[in-house]
Amino acid sequence: MEPRPIRFFHRGAVVEIADAAPTRTVLEWLREDARCTGTKEGCAEGDCGACTVVVGELDATGDVSLQPVNACIRFLPTLDGKALFTVEDVATPDGTLHPVQQALVDCHGSQCGFCTPGFVMSLWAGFQRHRAVGTVPTRQQLADDLSGNLCRCTGYRPILDAGLRAFELPAPVLDRMAVGAALRGLRQDPPLHYAPGYGAPAYHAPRTLAEFAALREALPQARVLAGSTDMGLWVTKQFKDLGELIYIGEVAELKRVDVQADRIVIGAAASLEVAWQALVAEWPTLRDVWLRFAALPLRVAGTMGGNVANGSPIGDSAPVLMALGATLVLRLGEQVRSMPLEDFYVGYMQNRLEAGEFLQAIEVPRRGERHQAVRAYKISKRFDCDISAVCAALAIELDGERIVSARLAFGGLAATVKRAAQAEAALLGQPWTEANLKLAMAALAHDYTPLTDMRASAAYRLQVAQNLLRRFWLETRPIDPLPESAVNVWAREALA
Question: Are strands 372-379 and 335-340 parallel, antiparallel or unpaired?
């Protein structure tokens, strides 16, 4: 494995970097090395959006895909073979503002200005996406796109006004052909094996599943890096030395989501956004928890496989996948085994992976012809882009009015995400009635011993979990089920 420099396209040229630490963030490089100081540092944990930049890469069709990401937790080597756009790039060379910039001025969408570059880049990414297909976003779509950008100066009304106003202004055309040509040229480079000369730990970015499996088996002590939406904080907040890294973001086989006749196969490196889209296409009632899972810059960078393998008790993917009956495909070298997700966790942030083994895919059974009711609810202090106090994922299968299958999974109620075995037992084989609902609600108290922390008290968590089970019954009861408008005070379509 011959080491080579990191190479990516930035400001019209290919940049080569051979001496940066593998965990140096894109934000640090931009501000301290490239002297592109328009991008700001706010939280250094991917929460405020002041550091938002746009990363371009070739998609499966050979077109240039543009996605907003958080520069503060993105490691520099992950830009290899890609294009980087910052707020310095959106205006024309003569200084004429881009429509999203001009609209923010016209609509008074900037006051202190610290967060404005991040808003510009999120709006610019959405602008390019919609212009490429000839659409204009709704106000709610803009709000969803901006859920990862915080503003306390102007409020969001003028910013949303600007997002819509931008589409009324004449726009310069992004030269996608030139960007695509540069990216195709970079793709001719061999896979990145990066080892700074001063002895910093190595960074590997294999491109095939076989290469990754062999490398992982040979380097069991190395950390597997995906979107760095969690691991990035280990560096920026905990100042950890991560050691040798193996990046899976270049392994095409692991980035796929394959919808088969009987299952959905989610590769371990498939982005959260793509994975959630596939699940919501099968179960539309999961849409709300998808859009409330972090924010777009985190969902396009992070992976569902990483969220599951991380094992956090407040990760929102695991409860949903557990309720849907997901199975994990684990691999060690050439050996592959499968395991139900509910058997994977053995303790707080602990799982059954062996040394050198990795998560290859998540398999979710499709709905088929089953009369299945599925809901997922997230309770957090802030509606968008916040950590759950409780996440409930509830699925039952009915034969008439009788429950023939029940899978109730909760995050935030224990050291691991797990199913509510006693509540399920109270429902199984019984009619879906209020009396049996109350038995299941009472049983929840025996399934979990919640903790008290900064997000919620133990008593609050238990009461919320029981009330969410009641809401599930109200929405799915055989007689007179309530529509979402009757049980939810928030309607995304209200801003459309």
Answer: unpaired
The two beta strands, 223-225 and 64-70, are: unpaired
The CA radius of gyration of the chain, in Å to the nearest whole number, is: 23
Q: Which amino acid is at 435?
A: A
CA distances from 32 to 5, 26, 27, 36, 226 (A): 19, 10, 8, 8, 25
pTM for this entry: 0.95
Domains 97-168 and 256-487 share a fold: no
pLDDT band at 152 (very low <50, low <70, confident <90, very high): confident
Q: Which neighbouring-strand residues pair with 53? A: 69
- pLDDT at residue 301, rounded to an integer: 97
Q: Is residue 495 very low, low, confident or very high in pLDDT (cuts 50, 70, 90)? A: very low
Contact 61, 176 (CB under 8 A): no
Residues linked to residue 264 through DSSP beta bridges, in sequence order: 259, 364
d(CA 92, CA 76): 26
Contacts for 465 with CB less than 8 Å, ≥ 6 apart:
390, 392, 410, 413, 444, 448, 450
- Decide yes or no: CATH 2.30.120.10 for domain 6-88+176-247: no
Domain boundaries, the chain: 6-88+176-247, 97-168, 256-487
In tens, the pLDDT along 451-463 reads 899 999 999 999 9
For the chain, the first-to-last Cα distance in angstroms comes to 52
Q: Which pLDDT score, from 0 to 100, does residue 494 have?
A: 46
Side-by-side strand order, sheet with 13-17: 13-17, 6-10, 83-85, 52-58, 64-70
Q: Looking at 166-259, list the stretches that DSSP marks H as alpha helix, in order from N- to C-terminal side.
A: 176-186, 209-218, 231-236
User: 149 is written with which tokens?
Assistant: 């950008």
Residues found in the chain: 496
Q: What DSSP assignment string belongs to 307-367?
A: HHHH--TT-SHHHHHHHTT-EEEEEETTEEEEEEGGGTEEETTEE-PPTT-EEEEEEEE--
- How far is residue 148's CA from residue 296's CA, in Å, rounded to a whole number? 7
Class for the domain spanning 256-487: alpha beta
Q: What is the CATH number of domain 97-168?
A: 1.10.150.120
Residue 172 is predicted with a pLDDT of: 87
Q: Where are the alpha helices (DSSP H) in 219-295?
A: 231-236, 272-282, 287-291
Three-state helix/strand/coil letters over 115-142: CHHHHHHHHHHHHHHHHHHCCCCCHHHH
